[in-house]
Amino acid sequence: MTVRATWNGQVLAESDHTIVVEGNHYFPPEAVNREFFAPSTTHTTCPWKGLASYYTVNVNGESNPDAAWYYPEPKDAAAKIRDYVAFWHGVTVEKADD
User: Fold this and answer.
1) Cα angle 18, 23, 29; round to 5
2) What is the pTM of this model?
3) DSSP for residue 28
4) N or C: which terminal CB in the chain sees fewer CB atoms within 10 Å?
Protein backbone atom coordinates (compact mmCIF):
# COMPACT_ATOMS: atom_id res chain seq x y z
CA MET A 1 0.00 0.00 0.00
CA THR A 2 1.40 3.36 -1.02
CA VAL A 3 1.08 6.06 1.61
CA ARG A 4 1.39 9.76 0.82
CA ALA A 5 1.99 12.78 3.07
CA THR A 6 0.75 16.12 1.69
CA TRP A 7 0.51 19.67 2.91
CA ASN A 8 -0.48 22.89 1.16
CA GLY A 9 -0.92 21.11 -2.17
CA GLN A 10 2.49 19.40 -2.25
CA VAL A 11 3.55 15.80 -1.78
CA LEU A 12 6.05 15.78 1.09
CA ALA A 13 6.68 12.03 1.09
CA GLU A 14 5.39 8.93 -0.65
CA SER A 15 6.24 5.28 -0.10
CA ASP A 16 4.91 1.75 0.01
CA HIS A 17 7.47 0.92 2.70
CA THR A 18 6.37 3.04 5.66
CA ILE A 19 6.70 1.69 9.19
CA VAL A 20 3.72 2.30 11.46
CA VAL A 21 4.61 3.07 15.08
CA GLU A 22 1.98 4.23 17.58
CA GLY A 23 -0.40 5.00 14.70
CA ASN A 24 2.09 7.17 12.78
CA HIS A 25 3.49 6.30 9.37
CA TYR A 26 7.26 6.74 9.32
CA PHE A 27 8.55 7.30 5.78
CA PRO A 28 11.97 6.03 4.69
CA PRO A 29 14.52 8.84 4.19
CA GLU A 30 14.68 8.33 0.42
CA ALA A 31 10.87 8.80 0.13
CA VAL A 32 10.96 12.35 1.53
CA ASN A 33 11.01 15.39 -0.80
CA ARG A 34 13.79 17.25 1.03
CA GLU A 35 13.25 20.49 -0.91
CA PHE A 36 10.33 21.26 1.43
CA PHE A 37 12.19 20.66 4.72
CA ALA A 38 14.32 22.88 6.94
CA PRO A 39 15.93 21.70 10.17
CA SER A 40 14.31 22.89 13.39
CA THR A 41 15.96 23.41 16.76
CA THR A 42 13.08 21.56 18.47
CA HIS A 43 13.73 18.25 20.20
CA THR A 44 11.50 16.01 22.30
CA THR A 45 12.18 12.80 24.16
CA CYS A 46 10.23 9.57 23.96
CA PRO A 47 10.91 7.09 26.79
CA TRP A 48 11.39 4.14 24.43
CA LYS A 49 12.30 5.74 21.08
CA GLY A 50 14.77 8.36 22.30
CA LEU A 51 15.47 11.94 21.23
CA ALA A 52 13.38 13.21 18.31
CA SER A 53 14.51 15.96 15.97
CA TYR A 54 12.11 18.09 13.91
CA TYR A 55 11.78 19.76 10.53
CA THR A 56 9.79 22.83 9.56
CA VAL A 57 7.91 22.22 6.32
CA ASN A 58 7.95 25.08 3.78
CA VAL A 59 5.59 24.98 0.80
CA ASN A 60 4.49 27.80 -1.52
CA GLY A 61 5.73 30.50 0.82
CA GLU A 62 4.02 29.08 3.90
CA SER A 63 5.74 27.43 6.86
CA ASN A 64 4.49 24.65 9.11
CA PRO A 65 6.91 24.65 12.08
CA ASP A 66 7.93 21.26 13.47
CA ALA A 67 5.45 19.43 11.22
CA ALA A 68 7.80 16.48 10.71
CA TRP A 69 9.99 14.54 13.10
CA TYR A 70 12.57 11.78 13.04
CA TYR A 71 14.94 9.88 15.30
CA PRO A 72 18.57 10.24 14.15
CA GLU A 73 19.88 8.09 17.03
CA PRO A 74 16.94 6.03 18.32
CA LYS A 75 17.12 3.67 21.26
CA ASP A 76 17.54 -0.01 20.38
CA ALA A 77 13.80 -0.69 20.64
CA ALA A 78 13.16 1.81 17.82
CA ALA A 79 16.23 1.13 15.68
CA LYS A 80 14.12 0.25 12.63
CA ILE A 81 12.86 3.86 12.33
CA ARG A 82 16.30 5.51 12.36
CA ASP A 83 16.05 8.63 10.11
CA TYR A 84 12.51 7.72 9.01
CA VAL A 85 10.21 10.78 8.95
CA ALA A 86 6.70 11.10 10.44
CA PHE A 87 4.23 13.99 10.24
CA TRP A 88 1.58 15.92 12.16
CA HIS A 89 0.37 19.55 12.52
CA GLY A 90 -2.06 19.43 9.63
CA VAL A 91 -0.03 17.26 7.25
CA THR A 92 -2.38 14.74 5.63
CA VAL A 93 -1.09 11.17 5.66
CA GLU A 94 -3.25 8.73 3.72
CA LYS A 95 -3.33 5.87 1.29
CA ALA A 96 -2.49 7.15 -2.19
CA ASP A 97 -5.29 6.84 -4.75
CA ASP A 98 -3.22 6.00 -7.81
Assistant:
1) 30
2) 0.96
3) P
4) C
